[in-house]
Description:
By secondary structure, this protein is an alpha/beta fold. Helix content is 43%, strand content 17%. The protein is built from ten helices and six strands; from the N terminus they run αααβαβαβαααααβββ. The structure holds zinc ion. The site of zinc ion (ZN) has 7 residues, from helix 6.
Amino acid sequence: MELHDQEKTDSSYYKRLFEGIRQFKANEFIPRQQFFEELGQKQNPHTLFIGCSDSRVVPSLITQTFPGELFVVRNIANLIPYYKKDSDTYLATTAAIEFAVKQMNVSNIVVCGHSNCGGCAALNQDKELKHLPHTKKWMELAHPVKKIIEEKIAKNKISPEQRSLFTEQLNIVEQVNHLLKYSYIRKRVKEGNLNVMGWYYHIEKGEIYNYNRNLRRFIRIE
Ligand SMILES: [Zn+2]
């Protein structure tokens, strides 16, 4: 399956979506009707998956999970707002986290970043975001990451070529740290009722690396 730019600009492109809906009904729904009927009654997801909005990151595909298993939050560059008890900002993300943990009682949280992330790349090119004021504001949540990377480059600890990879991976670690500052998450982790993970998805290789907090590095999931 390959989608070309020419097809994308075609005004009849919606037909591809409609055809997909017909195929879903025939190939997925009908053979598993009982599953969907039971699923329709309630959800009981075991994992909160926080990933990038990037079209190439498909949570249920890379984890081979069924509908009902993942409670998903996706935003640009898989960012977690700083915890503030009475905050009224970034609610789409913080409310989803709160609902998954406090209401759905998920037992895992995954923060999943990925290779060649446009959000992380934009972090290094502030000026290019002038025409995208909301994106620019959103990406401010990752400015501490940008600062650390710039310091490392200045001290020759990483080369400019390694910048993207380090930004993407450090961003995952930082966002997990933000999550662990949420009091209700910290409490559940301490009690052993919640497992918080940081994943790096390498798209071309089809590999996922899990962050090991003790070793302070990403280890490929075998
Ligand atoms: Zn991304």
